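Technical note accompanying the year-one report. For the benefit of new consortium partners, we illustrate the data format agreed upon in the data management plan: each record pairs a sequence with a structure-token string. No post-processing was applied to the example shown here.
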Amino acid sequence: MIDRIPSIDIVRFSTSGTEAIQTALRGARVFTGRNLIMKMDGSYHGSGDIAEYDSFVSPVRKGLSPHIDKEVVIGYFNDERTFQIIDQYKDQLAAVIVEGVMGAAGIIPPENGFLNQLQEKCRQYGIVFILDEVISFRLANAGAQEIYGLEPDITTLGKVVGGGMAVGAFGGRADIMSVFNPSKPNAVHHSGTFAGTPIAAAAGIAMLKKYQGETIIHLNEKGNQFAEDLKDLIYEYNLPLTVTHIGSLLNLHAIDTPIKTVDDVRRGNQTVLQAIQLAMLNEGVFFPKRGMMSLSTAITTDEFEFVLAMFDRVFKKYSMFIE
């Protein structure tokens, strides 16, 4: 992992992406001596309190700490307002955490150099820039940071780096990661009985050796082609649907306007999207009701054609309902 990701000097392991992110945020607080964390509205960073909090979440209703709104400030992906908010809280922010590509929110790639500007703003104020690559790492040898020319202070990882086993990881600059060094006084505590288990490590090594270079390029090409074929079907049936995608990640949205932000996603017709999801399930194809699809190297050409044929059948059968 250190060889593949130039921004990582030291890496530590956990049992999940959630745990990796929680620990990375704790380390950023100790390193900076500040307390406030910024996350993007609608981003998913696991199930910790900080990660779960956004503009649509009630701490009481969701069981989060009633004081969580004093620990988190909300930014907005692909939105200039974010930089103004950072200027406002610059002396309080320990870290800004952001996804390389917004995943669960609807596969929204960064636009107009948003992540690069965000990184520079963090550098300006000594804020730890944390890039969550749990989902986006699959897109290149070094993930989204390779695609967009980023050098985050800390990178958080999971899923792909474990080859299907339970694993999480975070790593970054040596000076920041040194706060976890147990040989130092007042080190940040980080341990876990199953963190970096031999089975997960062996699976992860095998995965990283196989999933690189031409394999990633080929899967991304298949993903882009699949997304374009799906768009062609939407156009053929004149449906109010949109596909967002990058490489092997794509998302179907029940809205016919461009998707740039999570607010665009929220304007979609979730009833229609869930109806399509159920109809596809009845045809033998599963994807989550939010419309997200992550393609695998194991999917064959025949299987791609089958899925597209089922979309064709569903779009044709339900076109009157969808309109």
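Partners are asked to follow this layout when depositing records. The radius of gyration is 20 Å.
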